[in-house]
Write a sequence for this structure.
């Protein structure tokens, strides 16, 4: 329905894709839409109207809950891509040079059980499926510049090196196996830092996160 926006080339290849999906992401909205679509399908002019009602109600609702039930976390060679399974939804790119591997942690609380203020829990940085408890916590690029980087509206070298206001942001990522995701992310960060040190030139002559 909507094409995927091309991601920054500096990300490198994808290493791992984590999909903390839940059937509620699809079934809930479609069952709700079916309550209206089925009766409409029995009236004139028939099933076509029922299908149309199902699509008009169900598709927007699936998109509406995708930030909860249809999340996708992609670990690339030099960045973390946070988005949903559906094209046309927001994507965020967090350069691995902005993440301290020593501060990547495993958590077990959902956004509803968090002690953080409600405004914080509603932040785009809470990439959490409310039906899953496993969470990986990282600190990296703030959602606003991360969104701009995903849209390629700011240069990679700026997002990867400069302390863009308001500074680092806490991201919480739902996953079915938090320890496995933490290990994969930490390994990717170390490998990226070895090639592109955050504070200096790497073996290839680039500086922290530059392609």
């Amino acid at each position: 329905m909507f094409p995927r926006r091309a991601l920054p080339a500096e990300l490198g290849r994808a290493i791992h894709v984590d999909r903390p999906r839940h059937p509620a992401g699809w079934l809930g909205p479609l069952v709700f839409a079916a309550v209206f679509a089925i009766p409409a399908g029995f009236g004139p002019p028939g099933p076509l109207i029922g299908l149309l009602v199902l699509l008009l109600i169900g598709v927007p609702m699936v998109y509406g809950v995708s930030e909860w039930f249809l999340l996708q976390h992609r670990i690339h060679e030099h960045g973390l891509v946070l988005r949903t399974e559906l094209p046309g939804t927001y994507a965020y790119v967090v350069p691995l040079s902005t993440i301290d591997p020593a501060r990547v942690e495993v958590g077990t609380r959902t956004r509803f059980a968090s002690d953080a203020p409600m405004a914080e829990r509603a932040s785009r940085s809470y990439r959490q499926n409310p039906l899953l408890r496993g969470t990986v916590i990282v600190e990296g690029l703030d959602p606003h510049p991360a969104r701009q980087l995903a849209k390629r509206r700011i240069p990679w070298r700026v997002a990867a090196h400069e302390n863009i206001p308001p500074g680092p942001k806490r991201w919480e990522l739902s996953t079915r196996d938090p320890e496995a995701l933490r290990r994969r992310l930490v390994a990717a960060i170390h490998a990226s830092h070895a090639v592109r040190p955050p504070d200096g030139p790497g073996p290839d002559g680039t500086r922290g996160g530059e392609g």
About this structure: The first strand starts at residue 14 and ends at 18. DSSP finds six helices and eight strands in the chain. Confidence is low (pLDDT under 50) at residues 200-209. Helices lie at 24-42, 47-69, 118-121, 143-150, 156-161, 178-195.
